[in-house]
Specification:
Layout (H helix, E strand, L loop, with lengths): L1 H26 L30 E2 L7 E3 L4 E6 L13 E7 L4 E6 L5 E7 L2 E6 L6 E6 L4 E4 L5 E4 L6 E7 L7 E2 H6 L5 H8 L3 H11 L29 H33 L30 E2 L8 E2 L4 E6 L13 E7 L4 E6 L5 E7 L2 E6 L6 E6 L4 E4 L5 E5 L5 E7 L7 E2 H6 L5 H8 L3 H11 L4
Antiparallel strand pairs: 1-21, 2-3, 3-4, 4-11, 5-10, 5-12, 6-9, 6-11, 7-8, 7-10, 9-13, 14-15, 15-16, 16-23, 17-22, 17-24, 18-21, 18-23, 19-20, 19-22
Helix pairs in contact: 1-5, 7-8
Length: about 475
């Protein structure tokens, strides 16, 4: 009986471990953050859905440069969960940064996310340092270029030109975290002696940087520790002849098993992060549910993290009068396994990004030029969330939901989109119904469209059946 119970526990625990990841997706389409409540490890509690409006899914905060951060000569505007509550739980967020001539985005990390950088204007030098071999990957970027910084690695950018460089960055988390090395060392009260011990930087330089960044702690005060003898751990022994104590022992063993299973479950999700910094896709191998196998690390160069395919519009897709240039894993192998990718969308006057879904990724769209209407439909109440977007606006489409964009202006609308997956997928409703071999009768029966209309649309999109 005990063995059977243990087997059940072993089967259930991994499933329970998966629940925190999938419960939100199963229960609702989105979870707009209620910023009045305390944050949890999995994000903020949800705002009541009856109070959610289209305004929750649009953010205007990146339309203008943010506040100047001295001495970096860089302006930062953020659209993380605290500024853009709609991205709560959707695995994506964004920032805009304007790097003035001679300015820098200093050495930093995002502990909780991969960063995908798109150069909107100007020139930048971007680079990161791997953790396993301290290999430097650095690249000169121009307008329209993409560069990916793997999660948690030290990275930087600087402006080598005499004009301001503007960047749009998307992150694979609604709260990616930010730790600037200079601030961590020189903007707080960490003692100079400790900094010297752990970095080998000379005291005069530490004092200079403390003064520059406003830190304190020039004098060293030793930390006091209790001797281990002062906090002994009391031990207990059990009499295994007692049935009650025997049950306690069995319970303790069961707890141990549960802990081990949880650790094994954790390992299965984090093995890539534990073993390597990135996994550039080997496109000569077959794709798997977990992504492509890795290119040998000795063959990886900075070019693998760089992509120039969004500089120009993609091919026009008729009859939508729009074009898409993708930066998914098949186009940009550097994003393999990093839970992020991108695309450029150009919608010409009167054009449309038709009703479609991305089954595997949330989409965050940033308007570079023009004017569009963006909207999606929830699956829980078929509620329409729709907004007019102008240059600099952000809009988020939750994962898997039907959504659309169309151009309401007289000029071409240009957008860059980021996705919370290296391969978000794309299913256009018109193509699925009218460009496939699905019979006209089946389309009519399952959509309630008249057969004559199905026949007309099959002719427009080139379908058969």
């Amino acid at each position: 009986m005990a063995k059977q119970a243990l087997i059940v526990v072993l089967l259930l625990v991994p499933l329970l471990f998966l629940l925190p990841v999938s419960t939100l997706a199963l229960a609702q389409d989105f979870c707009v953050a209620n910023l009045l409540q305390s944050q949890t490890p999995s994000g903020y509690p949800c705002k009541p859905e009856l109070l959610v409006t289209s305004n929750d899914f649009v953010n205007h905060g990146l339309a203008e440069p943010g506040l100047l951060i001295p001495p970096f000569k860089t302006r930062l505007a953020s659209a993380l969960v605290t500024q853009f509550p709609a991205v709560n739980g959707l695995g994506i967020s964004a920032t805009r940064f304007d790097v003035l001539p001679g300015g820098v985005v200093p050495m930093l990390t995002h502990p909780g996310a991969t960063e995908l950088l798109f150069v909107v204007e100007g020139q930048m030098i971007a680079g990161f340092v791997s953790a396993d071999r301290n290999q430097v990957y650095i690249k000169a970027l121009e307008k329209g270029d993409l560069f990916v910084f793997p999660q948690g690695l030290l990275h930087f950018q600087y402006n080598p030109a005499n004009t301001t460089a503007v960047g749009f960055s998307a992150y694979s988390s609604s709260n990616p975290g930010l730790q600037i090395v200079d601030w961590a060392l020189f903007k707080n009260n960490l003692a100079s002696k400790i900094i010297n011990n752990v970095t080998f930087i000379d005291f005069p330089e530490i004092r200079r940087l403390k003064a520059l960044f406003g830190g304190s702690g020039h004098t060293y005060k030793p930390l006091l520790y209790k001797h281990p003898e002062e906090s002994r751990i009391q031990t207990h022994s059990f009499n295994f002849k007692s049935p009650s104590k025997l049950s306690i022992t069995m319970a303790a063993k069961a707890v141990t098993v549960l802990v081990l299973v949880l650790l094994l479950s954790l390992l299965s999700f984090s093995s890539l992060a534990l073993t390597q910094d990135f996994c550039v896709a080997d496109l000569s191998s077959k794709d798997t549910p977990a992504g492509y196998p890795c290119k040998p690390q000795t063959e990886v160069t900075a070019d693998d993290f760089f992509y120039a395919g969004l500089k120009k519009p993609g091919q026009i897709v008729n009859p939508f009068n729009a074009s898409v240039a993708k930066a998914f894993v098949h186009d940009f192998p550097g994003v393999n396994g990093l839970r992020i990718s991108g695309a450029r969308v150009d919608i010409y006057p009167g054009g449309v990004a038709p009703l479609h879904t991305h089954p595997e990724g949330t989409e965050l769209v940033y308007v570079l030029e023009g004017k569009v209407v963006a909207g999606f439909i929830s699956s829980t109440g078929n509620t329409v969330y729709m907004e007019t977007l102008n240059k600099g606006d952000l809009f988020v489409f939750p994962i898997g939901l039907l959504h659309f964009l169309y151009n309401t202006g007289t000029t071409t609308a240009v957008m860059v989109s980021a996705y919370s997956s290296s391969n978000p997928g794309l299913q256009i409703v018109d193509f699925a119904l009218f460009q496939s071999t699905l019979s006209e009768e089946d389309v009519a029966k399952t959509t309630f469209l008249k057969l004559a209309e199905v026949n007309r649309l099959k002719a427009v999109f080139g379908g058969s059946g």
